[in-house]
Design brief:
mainly alpha; 35 residues
């Protein structure tokens, strides 16, 4: 059970990082900066 929770936490954190990176990229692009 502990392994399952650990894997799920890792996936969620990876998804969170991807979402943050994507939103930052969109903000930069909308301001006319090259990413």
């Amino acid at each position: 059970m502990a392994k399952y929770v650990f894997v799920t936490g890792g996936v969620v954190s990876a998804l969170g990082k991807g979402i943050v990176a994507a939103s930052l990229g969109r903000l930069l692009k909308s301001r006319g900066l090259s990413v």
